[in-house]
Amino acid sequence: MLRDPSLIPLSHQHQHALALCVRIDRASPIDTADLGVWQAEVAGIFQNEIRFHFAAEERVLFPAALRYRELAAVVENLLAEHEKLREDFARAETCRMTAEQLLDFSRRLSAHIRKEERQLFEGLQGAMDAAELADLGARLNDALKGATQACALPNEATRLRGLKQDQG
């Protein structure tokens, strides 16, 4: 289903986070020497974008979805995942992740995003009319004002492995 314009800002942020997840997956196993740089990038995307994203979902999107009984279970699940992901981001901010934990985190984040896109967003688009979606979009835009609106570029240590080899 084509994404409604009201949800596109969240979908764009999802794309940014998924790009990070893909790079972590492709770089794994991550060398211990590079682990701190990867964790700094994870912490940075949380501070610049994801913390605003989670707040917007929790204050605006999830309450709107809870008006529809068929979306209640997915919202409850997504809220629980937010808590686990916040723990992961906090571990990254304090450089307490192992390479294995970093990979597990990226897989959890990717699965979480796909659940939001495929279940929650699709469900909302099917349940809400155009006016409700437009109102939701306006409230989401307001809630996302503090977030960085551009995809963060990887630094030298977090570029995909194939790119490192081509330069080496």
Describe the structure.
The chain is mainly alpha-helical and 168 residues long. The protein has a single domain (7-27, 34-144), classed as Four Helix Bundle (Hemerythrin (Met), subunit A). 77% of the residues lie in helices and 0% in strands. It has 6 helices and no strands. It has helices at residues 8-27, 32-65, 69-93, 99-127, 130-143, 161-167. The model is unreliable at 163-168 (pLDDT under 50).
Keywords:
single chain; Four Helix Bundle (Hemerythrin (Met), subunit A); 168 residues; mainly alpha; elongated; disordered C terminus
Task: Lay out the secondary structure.
Blueprint: H1 8-27, H2 32-65, H3 69-93, H4 99-127, H5 130-143, H6 161-167
Helix pairs in contact: 1-2, 1-4, 2-3, 2-4, 2-5, 3-4
Major beta-sheet overview: none
CATH architecture field: Up-down Bundle
Distance between the termini: 43 Å
Mean pLDDT: 91
Strand content: under 5%
Decide which structural class fits the backbone: mainly alpha
Helical content (DSSP H or I, runs of 4+): over 70%
Radius of gyration: 17 Å
Beta strands, count: 0
Number of helices: 6
* Low-confidence runs: 163-168
The CATH topology is Four Helix Bundle (Hemerythrin (Met), subunit A)
- The ordered H/E elements are HHHHHH
Number of domains: 1
Name the shape in a single word.
elongated
CATH class: Mainly Alpha
